[in-house]
Structures are given as structure tokens and as C-alpha cells.
Design brief:
The protein has about 100 residues and is mainly alpha-helical. It folds into 2 domains: about 1-35, no CATH class; about 35-95. About 55% of the residues lie in helices and about 10% in strands. The protein has 5 helices and 2 strands; from the N terminus they run E-H-E-H-H-H-H. The protein is elongated and about 50 Å long. The mean pLDDT is about 85.
């Protein structure tokens, strides 16, 4: 068995996993990046959205081919969210991505 440290860890949004990875990074046992799994990210967003049809905007953001495209989509999509709970979900997603 090789004692290699991964360059990336892909997980869902579990607070326990996030805490464990932070601890590993703090102890310098993991220097890679922590990425969120798109499947679980979308599934969790669907649970939070009031207007379920808005999920298409999140999917398009995840599929953006460049930062320029992502930023353009962010500006375009901002006005599509009318319900306060959905606006909060959108902003939280943007903070994480």
C-alpha cells in the first residue's frame, strides 16, 4: 500500500466531514482541496427551494466552462429569484462555489 495523500477530497456538505478535513489541514496532514459533489449539492438545493423549477439555474452555474461564463450567469440569474428563501439559497450556493 502506498502512503500517498490525495490532492483532492470530494464529499457532500456534511458538517462532520468538513470539520474533519479542516482538522487535517490545520495539522498539515492534508494540503489538497475539498470539493463538493455536484450530485449531492443539487439534491440539497432542491430540498431547500420553494420554486423547484429554479434548479435549472444552479445546474447551469455548475456547468459553466469558465469563470467569465460563471460570472455572467450569476449576473443574469440574480433577478430570477423572487422568494426570500430561494434568494438565500442562491446566495449561499454562490458563497460555496
Amino acid at each position: 500500500m502506498v502512503d500517498a495523500v490525495p490532492g483532492a477530497i470530494i464529499t457532500d456538505e456534511s458538517p462532520a466531514i468538513k470539520s474533519a478535513i479542516s482538522e487535517l489541514q490545520r495539522d498539515r496532514k492534508f494540503t489538497g482541496v475539498h470539493l463538493l459533489d455536484n450530485f449531492h449539492l443539487i439534491r440539497n438545493i432542491k430540498k431547500k427551494l420553494v420554486e423547484k423549477d429554479k434548479i435549472k439555474y444552479f445546474i447551469q452555474l455548475l456547468q459553466a466552462q469558465s469563470m467569465a461564463m460563471y460570472n455572467q450567469l450569476v449576473r443574469e440569474f440574480e433577478h430570477h429569484f423572487n422568494i426570500e428563501k430561494d434568494i438565500k439559497t442562491y446566495r449561499t450556493f454562490l458563497e460555496k462555489s
